[in-house]
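Justification of computing resources. Each target in the renewal requires a structure prediction run like the one illustrated here; the chain below, 154 residues long, is used simply to show the kind of job we budget for.
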Amino acid sequence: MTILRPYGVLLLAGLVLFGTGCDSGGDDEPRDAERILGTWTVSDVSDADGSQQATFAQNVNRMTVVFNADATFRLTVDAVDDAGDQTLDGPYSLNEALKKLTVTATLSGQPVQLAFDYAFRNETTLALSASSVLINPLLGTNLAGTVTLTLTKS
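Resulting structure tokens:
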């Protein structure tokens, strides 16, 4: 029995090391700060009354946002009426624990922080939600309640 004891210790140590090396606890999953990087296009707009995409499409041809690795963003709105085209740039931050995205844009010469709740629905779909009080002045809309912008990664 005394001969088996050292081997038992080695076997136990090997199992512990193997178990640690084969951890499937999700450490390989990319963090939200990595997942958000890239170009996203608004594919749906909804509010308290449901999808408003048809109404949104009457005014906007395309709306994209690019999130860069240096924590800056660029929002580009291609409006149906070219006079409504706009581009907003600025820094952004993510609070992964609270699932909050905050962007700072300059509107009418003043820096304005816009805070969104966010949720990744999958690797190519991101939902941003905020109060219509914040969204309406930005988009020139009359949406109600909580507004959800669904973005698809390009």
